[in-house]
Amino acid sequence: QVQFVESGGGLVQPGGSLRLSCVASGFPFNQNDMGWYRQVPGKQRELVARISLGGFRTNYADSVKGRFTISRDNNKNTVNLEMNNLQPQDAAVYFCNAYWRGSPRYNWGRGTQVMVSS
Fold this sequence. Notes:
The protein is an all-beta fold and 118 residues long. The protein is built from no helices and 11 strands.
């Protein structure tokens, strides 16, 4: 059974930082590109960062480029998202998933809530 367990969210002030982690299980992690997605109420879930299966290629949404860094540890089946200079528009529930042909591949986990407010 595929499972994603996201953690690391919380409340930060504008300009602050958070590090999100996702532990994946139930599928061949090191054979899949991975992505971090986010969703706010009333909007579609969006891909914010993607990393290739070996960790050598990364892509970011324009809105987070230069502020967020995605990384992975294939020995621990973990994908991380380092988020710096957080802004109110980054507030969302963040999810991870395998990325396959432009779409998330499996059912979603519960996500982790990020709140940005002074």
